[in-house]
Specification:
Helix content: under 10%
Largest sheet: 22 strands, antiparallel, barrel
CATH class of one domain: Mainly Beta
CATH architecture of one domain: Sandwich
Length: 1055
Amino acid sequence: MKKTLLMSLVLMFTLLQGVLAQTRTISGRVTDQKTGDGLPGVTVLLKGTTNGVSTNADGAFSLSVPESGGTLVFSSVGMTTQERAIGTNSDFQVALATDTKQLTEVVVTGYGGSQDVKDITGSVAKVTEEKLLLQPVVSADQALQGRMAGVNVNTTSGTLGDQAVIRIRGANSISNSSQPLFILDGVPLNNSAQANSLSTRYNPLADINPNDIASVDVLKDASAAAIYGSRGANGVVVITTKRGKSGTNRLSFNSFYGFQDAVRTPKVLNGSDFIAISNEKAANARAGSVGAPGNVGNTSIPAAIAAPIDVNGDGVPDETDWIKEVFQRGTQQNYQVALSGGNEFASYYGSGDWNDQKGIILNNRLRRGSGRLNIDLTPKKWLKSGVSLNYAKTYNQGINGENALAGATVSGYTAPPNIPAYNPDGSYYLNTLGNLGNGNNVVPSTYAPNAYFHIIGTLRENRNDNTVQRTLGNGYLTVEPLKGLQLTTKYGIDYSTNFEDQYSSPILGSLGRQLGQGLVQLYNTTRTQYNWQNYANYDRVFNEKHTIGLTAGVEYQETRTQLVYSSGADFADTKFQSLLDGLYTNQTGTGGSAFNNGFQSYFARANYSFDNKYYASFSFRADASSIFGANNQRGYFPGGSVGWRISQENFMKGITAINDLKLRASYGKVGNSAGIGSYASRTLVGGGQYADLNGFSISQVGNPSVAWETSKKLDIGFDAALVNNRINVTFDFFNNDVSGILLFAPTLRTTGIPGSGVNRNVGSMYNRGVELTLNTVNVRLQNGFTWTSNLNGSIIKNRITELATPNDITAGNQRASIGSSVGIYFLPVWAGVNPANGNAQFLDKDGNIKQYDAAYTTNASTTQGRWLTASGDVTTPITVADYKYTNKTGYPTFFGGFDNTFSFKGLELGIFLQYSGGNQIYNGYRAALLSNSLQNNITEIKDRWTTPGQQTDIQKLVLRDVVSTQASTRWLENGDFLRIRQASLGYNLPDAFIKRYGVNNLRVYVLAQNLYNFTKYKGLDPEVNTNIGNNIAYGVDGRSVPPTRSFTFGINVGI
C-alpha cells in the first residue's frame, strides 16, 4: 500500500512538472490612448483565472501564461476594458481609452465651487474637452449646437463674424436680451455682440480659442444659477480653460483646412426669362380696365419695359448672373499650438492660434490671431496663486448691410439679369447717378423701382471693416489657513477696442457720391470691464457620512464704454479714402458717447449631503446696480434644491439593472439685467434745434422704480444609470415664471413726456417644458468595436400673461400679445388665387373671400387696383381689422440632437443630427423674389396664373402690384428640419508606428458640416433669422447671407 501511494505521488509530481513546463512569459506596455503616456496600476489578468499582475510606473508588465494561450483582460478605473487573445504573441502594446461612463464628471458651479455630477441637485449640462476637440470650429458657441437639452443654438447667417443666437429654455424676456451670462475662468465675460455702429460683424466668444477650453458647463435652473443673482435668468454658461498639469511637458499641434459653399442659393431668372416675365407684368397692367370693363387700361406703361442690350457689340445680348458674381467658394485655414507642463510647485499652459477665413460673399474675409497663457503657482501647500491672460486681434472685411438694398444678397438676388456688369473697357456699367445702368429697360418714373446699386462695385470699391483687439485677464490668490478652508481674492479685466472703418466711393450711387467725392466714417468703441471677487470656501467630510460645502463672498464690477466717431466727406481727390487726408475735405463731423455702470454683490452657498444619499443645496445673492432707480437698486435672489440618491438605499441593492438613480427638485428666483441701458431709470436730455435756435430738451423721462426682471424657476427631474452604466438618462420638467418685464408704458399726452411713455416693470410671461438626455453604449465587442449614442430633446411652451396695456406690442408682422406666445404672427389671411381671373384672394374677419383686381385703374396713368367680393362685386379693402393671429411663432417648440459614434481599432466615424420644429418662419426672401416690380424673380414665378381655370398659388402678374404680395399668411412656412449637422471620419495612427518618431498621439480626420437638410421650407435655410436680438420679431427670413456647408481636413498631433 505504501509503495502504491509513493508511486502515485511520484507520478503526479512528474505530470505537474510537465504541465508547469508548458508555460511561457509574455510582456508588454499599456499606455493612455490620448497622451501616449504609460499607465501605472493597470490590471493584466488571464481571463478565467486569478493569474494576473499590475503594470509598473511606466505601464510595463510581464506575466507567465500557459503555452496553450488564452485571453488577457486589461482593466483600470476610468479606462475602457480591453481583451486581447494571446495566440503566439509575446509582446503586447495596448492603448486604453478614457471611459467617460466610468469617470465622475465634475461641474464647475462658480466662485471656486465644483461638484461631481452624481452629487448635483440642479439642472446642468456639460460639453467636455474631448467633444470640443472633435469639432473644428472657430467659436465655442458653434460647438454647442444641438448638444444639450434645453439649449437652442442657431446659426443665423453665413456672414463671417456673426454670433450664434443662444436661448436656454426659451426666450426669457420680451424687450431685453435673452442671451445667457458667460463666465470665463470664474470672471463674467462681456458678451455684447450688438454694439457695432456700422453694421460690421463681431462675435466676442470667438476671441476664446476653442482648443484652449477644458469644459463648458451650462447652468439651467435657479438652484445652479441663483449664485449669479440678477444675471442668471437666461442661464449661465461657465467656460473653463485648460491648465498645466504636473508631469511631462506636452506639446500639441492642431490644424485644419476646409472650403465652404452656401447651403443653398436662389434659382433666379436668366436674361431672356426676365424680359418675358417683366413685359408680361407691364402688359397685364396696360390691359387693365379703366372705370368700367372693356375700357383701355394704363396707357402710360410701355408695351415692353424690358429688352436685351448688346454693349459689347458682338451680336450677343449681354447678361449677368449676379448671384454667381457675388457668391464665391469660401475657405478656412486654422493653426493652433499649445505647450503645457509643470511640477508640484508650478504649472503652465500656453497656446497660440491663427485663423484665416474667406467668406462665401465677395470681399468678405476674417483673420484672427490669439494667444493664451495660464500659470499656477503653489509655493506652499497652503498658498496658491495664478494668472490667466488671453489676447486676440480680429480683422474683419465685412459686408455693408446685406439686408439693405445696397447689400450683397438683396441686390445680388434682384438686380436685372439682362444688364451687363461691365462696359467694354472694363469699367462698371453705371448710369449717370452711379447706380446700375438700366440697359434697354424702360419704365415710367411713376413705376420705376428703387435704384439698384452696382453690387460688384459696392463690394469692391467700398470698405466696411472692423478691427477688434481684446485682452482678457485675471489673477487670483488662495490661502488655506485651516484644513478645508480656502480664502480667495480674484481680479479680472475685460478690455477691448473696436475700430470700425467705412468708406463710400464717389464712383457709385451711394452716400459718398451724394456728399461729394467720397465719405469716410470712423467709429472707435472702447469697453473696459473690471471685476473683483473675494470669497471663502469651506469643504469638509465628517464621520465619513456628512459632507458640507460652504461659500460666501462679495463681488464688485464696473463697466465703462466710450464711443468716439468722426467722418469726412467730399474729398479733394477721389483717391483719398482716409481721414488722414482730412485737410482736404469740405465736410467733417465728430461726436461720441459714454456709458458707465456698476455692480456690488454679496453671495452665499451651502451644500450638504448625508451618506451619499440625501442632498440639499441653498444659495443666495444680493445685488445692487447703478442701472436701476433709487427705489430698486438692490435685489435679492435665493435658490434651493434637494436630492435623493435612491439607488443607495438598501431596498435597491438587489436591483442590479439600476446602477444609479437620483431624484431632484429645485426652486429659486433669479434676475435679468441684460440689454437694459446704463441709464434706463434716469431722465435724459439731448441737444436740439427749434426755429434755428439751439437748445436742450428732455429725451427720456426717468423712473426711479425701474428694477430687474425676475424669474421664479421650478425644476423637477431625475438622473439614472442603467445596465452596467451603459444607459444614462436625465429628465427634467421646468417652469419659469417671468415677472417685472421692462416695457414702455404709455402716459397721457397732457403730461408732456417725450414719446408719451416711461419704462416700467409691468410685463409677465412663462416658459415651461420637458427635457430628456439619453446616453447609451449600444455595442461594445471584444475586438474593440464600440457604438455609442447621445440623444437629447426639449419641448417648450411660452405664454405672455401681462403687458403694460391690453394692446399688443408690435414688431413688424409679429406681436407680443396677452395669452399668446412671444412673437405670434398677426397677418392678413391668404386664400389663394382665383382660378377664373388670377386675382389674389384674402379672407376678411368673417371668413369671406375678398379678391384684389390689381390691374384696375381709375385713369390711364396710375395703377390703383380694387377689391371685389368672391362674386365680383366691388367691396371694401382688407384692413387691420381683418388680420388674424396665428397659433405659431418663430420659436421652435421642440428641438434637440442625436449623436452617434462608431469606433474600431483607431478608426472613428461620427454622425451628428440636429432637429427642430413646431415653429413658422416668415419667408420674406420668397415674398421679395416674387415681387411685381421691375426686378429679377425666382424661377417659381414661371408658375404664375396665365389662363382661366389654371390652379396655381401665384397670382396674375401686374407691374407694381404690391397688394397681392403684401405680408400675409401666404409667406408663413413650417420651420421643421432634420439636419446632418456633422459627419466625420477620423483615424488615430497606431502607437507602434508613431512612437518611433517621438509622437504620443496623431489623429487625422475629414469632416463635413451642414451636409444635408431635410425640410419643406422653401427659403434658403430654416435657421436664418434676420432680426437678431429682437425677441418679438424672431424667425424672419429677410434675405440674409445663407449658412454654409463646409468640408474640412485636419490633424491633431501630441508630443
